[in-house]
Design a protein that fits this description.
heterotrimer, A mainly alpha (269), B mainly alpha (300), C alpha/beta (434), B: 300 residues, mainly alpha, MetI-like fold, 2 domains, two-stranded antiparallel ribbon, 13 helices, globular, C: alpha/beta, D-Maltodextrin-Binding Protein, domain 2, 5-stranded mixed β-sheet, 3-stranded antiparallel β-sheet, 16 helices, 12% strand, membrane (chain B)
Amino acid sequence: MKGWTLTFTLAVVFGLCVGPFYWLAMAATHSTADIFSWPPKFYPGDQLAANTAQLEESIGLVRVLGNTLYVAVVQTAGAIVVSLLAGYAFAKFSFEGRDLFFVLLLSTLVIPGGVTIIPIFEMMNDLGLIDSYPALILPSLSVPFGIFLMRQSLLAIPDELLDAARVDGAGELRVLWRVVVPVMRPVLAALAVFLFLGAWNDFLWPLIALRTPEMYTLPVALATLQGLARTDFGQVMVGTAISSLPMMILFLVLQRQFISGLLAGATKG
Amino acid sequence: MTFTLSRPRERARTRQSYVTRRNIPYLLIMPALLGFLVFKAYPIIAAMYISLTTGAGAARSFVGLDNYVRLVNDPLFWTSLWNTGLILVVQVPIMLLFALLLSLGLNSPLVRLRGLWRLGVFMPSLTGLVAYGVMFSVILRKDAGLLNWLLGLFGVTPIDWLGSPFWARISIVIALTWHYTGYNAVIYLAGLQSIPKELYEAAMVDGAGAARRFWSITVPQLRPILALTVVLSTIGTLQLFDEPFVLTGGGPDNSTLTISLYLYQNGFRYFDFGYAAAIAYALTLIVAVFGIAQMRLQKK
Amino acid sequence: MIDRRAALAVLLTGALTAACGTTEDPGQAGPVKITVWSWKPASDGLAAVAKDFEKANPNIKVTVQAVGNPAIWDKITIDMAAGGKGLGDVLHIGIDYLPGYMDKFPGGLADLRKLGADSHKDAFAKGLWPTVTGKDGGVYAMPWEVNPVGFFYRKDLFDKAGVEVEKITTWDEAIEAGKKLKEKTGAFLVGLNKSAAGSVDMDFYQSLLQQQGAFYFNGQGEVTLSSAPAVQAMTLLKKMNDAGIVADTSGEGTAKQLISGGKLAVLPWAAWAVSYIPDMRPEQKGLWRVMQPPAVTPGGKRTAIVNSTHLAVSGTSPHQKEAYTFVEYALTRPEVINKVFKEGGVFPALTAAYSDPRYTEPQPYYGDQPALKPFVDALTEGADATYYSGDYARALKIASDAQTKVLLKGADPAAALTEAATLLAQQTNRKLAG
C-alpha cells in the first residue's frame, strides 16, 4: 500500500518534470499558427515532416547536428583528459605549491561568465582562430569542476595499487591508463555527461566566435530563426525537441555509471 | 590516441632527460594551468583594468574608482542584490529539501519503475536555454498558460505569474526548482546508495522508527554531499542569469533583476563596459565571501 | 613516442598556418567578398536583390546572413568592444541599438559621407536623417525600414458594438468606444505586454509621445521623461488600463492566441503588420481594416514613426567602398527597395518608392481597402526628428519600468515618471529638462 502511494507521488513529480517536454514534442508536430492556440495541443499534429523539412532547408539541420556533435565530443574528451591529468597530480603527488594551484584552479568557479568573453574574443581574433572549432573548444578544456571531481575520486584509490604498477616499470601515463582509468569509469561517465551537456547547449560563446553558417552549432543555428515578431515556431519547436534528444540518450546509456560516479566525487569532502 | 602504444622501457629511455620524478606533477597539471592562465586569469585581470575605465574602443578613458563609487550609489544595483539574496534564501532550501525527499523516494525499494522516474526527474537539467525559455513562457502565461490551466482543474483562479512583482519572483523560484531539483536529487541518490545497509538494520533492531533512522543515520551520512550541494547551489544562485533573462527580462519593474542580469544589461545593452566590469568584481567578491564562509562553517 | 610528438607538432603548425592563411590577402585578384548581417525575414528581401547586384557588379560577391534577432546584437556588440574585428561588412541595425553604437563606439561604424551618402539626404522619409547623423555630423547608416504606427482594427467587432471607428479622432474617443466594445463583444481594445521590458513593448507609449512631438530626450540631450506630454501620454494609458480594456500580452504567443480568439479589436502596430497579419491569421480575411491612429489631443497629430532599421557599414571593414556600393544599390533605388519589400516584408524608408502602384492598390484581406495608404500618407506628411541619444537603451528600460508601475501597481503617472526621469538623469549624467 505504502509502495503504491510513493509510486503515485513519484509519477506526479515525473509528470511535472516531463510534461513540458511532452508539450514541446507535440508542439513540434503542429504548424506555427496552431502551436500557441488554446486549449493546449496535447495530441500529435501532422506537421512534423513539414517543420523538419523547413528546418533542414533554413539551417541545414543534418550538417548543424554534425557540427554540434563534433564540437561536443572533442571538447568533452579533451576536458576529461585535462581534468584527469590534473586531478591525478593533485591527488597522488605532493609537490611545491600544490594547494595553491588547486585553490587557484577552483577559484574560477566564482567568476561570472560574461566577464571573460571580450578578452577571450580579442585573443582568438589575434590568433586568427575566429570561426574555427579550436576557438570553441580551447577555452573549455580547463574545467574546475572536472578537476575537483577527478581529484576527489582519485583520493579514494589506494596508493599501493599505483605503486605496484610503478614497480613493474610503468610510466605515469601508463599507470593512469592501465590502473586508474578502469576503476574510474563511473566518475568519467558522470563527468562526460556533465561536460557534454555544457558543450551541447552552449550558446553565447559559439554565437560570438563563429562566423559562417556552415560552421554553426545547433543553439546558434536555432537563434537565426528568430526575427522580431515573425519567428517560425514550428521550426523552432522541432529544433528544440531534437536538441534535447542526444542528452536523453546519453543519460539513459550512462545512467547507472553516472549515479555511482557522482557519488565518488561527492563523498570525500 | 592511447598512451599504451610504446613499450615501457623505450619510453623511460627517451623521456629520462627531461621527465623527472620531481617535475611529473607539474607536467600533469600543465594543461589545466595553461587553460586557467590564458582563459581565466588573464581575462579577469583585463576586466580589473576595464573596471577602472569608462567608454569603449577609442573612447576609453581611465577614471580610477569612479565605477565603484557609482555602484555603491546605484539604487538598481542594490535592488538586484536584494532580489538575488531573496531568491537565494527562499529557493535553495526549498529545492534541496525537495531533492532530498525525492531521492528518498527514488531509492525506496517499495517503488516500482524506479529507472523511469529517475530519468524523468533528471530531464529538466538537460534542457538548453532556448528550450527552457520557450517552454516556460508558455507554461506561465496568465490567460492561456499550462500552469494556470492545471491549477484551474483544482479551482484556482488564474494567477498573473509574470505580471506581478510578487508572482514573478515566485515564477523564478518555480522555474529554478524545476530545472535543478532532479539534478540534486540524483546526487543525493548516489549518496544514499553508499550508506551501509548494516547501519539501518542495526537501528531497526534497536527499534528506531523511520523518522529517527532518517535523522540519526541518513542525514549524518549524507552530510558531505549536502554540504557540496549547498555550496554549488549557492554559487549558482548568486550568479543567477538564465531564468530572469528568458522569463522576465528582470521585470516587472526590476522585481527579478539579478546581479548577473544587471551586469549583462550594462555591458551588452548600454555598452557601459567599465561599469559592467565593476559589477562583475562586486559579484565575484560576494560569491567568494559566501563560498569561503560556507566552507568554514561546514568544517566546524 | 618521438614520432607521435613530431606528428603533433606538424598538426599544430598546420592548424596555425591554416588559420593564418584565412586572413585575406589584399593584393589578391578576383571578386571582393562582402558579408551582410541581418535577420529574418528582412534578410530574405536583401538576399533576393543581392543576386541582381552581383550581376551588375561582377567584382563584388555578397553573402547575406540571417544572424537572428536578438542574437545579432550580442554579436555586433562584442565585436565592436573588441575593436571591430570580425564584424560583417554591412550591418542591419535597429533604432534601439544604432544611437548607442554611434555614440559609444567612435569609429565602429564607417562615416558614409566620404562615400557620398550625403547626396541621398532628402531621399528618405522626413525625420529619419537626423537619426543616422552623429554628433560630429557624420552619416553612420542609411535608412532602410521605417515603421509609422498604424491602427489595425477588427471592423466586424466594432460593428457589433455599434461603433463607427472611422469617426474616432482622439484616444479619449477610442477609450469610450473600447468600453462599449468590451461590454458588447468581450474583446479588449488593445493588448500591451504590461510587465516586460522589451523595446517593441514600448512602441505604443512612444507613439503617444511622438504624436505630441516629444520623447525621452530633447535636442539638447536633456532628459524629458517627466515633461507634460510624457505625463499626458502615460495618463492616457492608465485611463485605458483602469477602464479594463487593455489585455496583458506578456508571455510567448499570448497576443497571437488572443488575436486568433477574436479577443483583440485593435493592434496599434506599425507598417510591417500589413503583410504580417494576413500571414498569421489567413482565416480572418476581410475582418481587418487599418487607419491612422487617433490623436492624443483634439486636432493633434495622428502620425508617428515608432521605429526604423538601417544598414550601416563596419568602420573596420577593409571593403567599405564595396559595402557602401551595395547599401546604396539596395536602399536608394525604388524598384530595388520595392523588391526587398515584397520578399522581406520590410516597409521602405525611401519616399520615391511610394509611387509604385502597390502602395495604393486595394487589398482583399483588408476588405479591398488600400491598406498601405495610411502609412504612405503618414510618411508623406513627415514626422519630427526624434532625439534618441546614445543612452536610448537605458531610457527605454527606465521608461518601461515606469509604465509597468502605472499599469500593474496603479502608480500615479506623474510621480512614476518624475522618479524615472531622476534615475535616468543620474545614471546617464544628464540634466533634467527644466
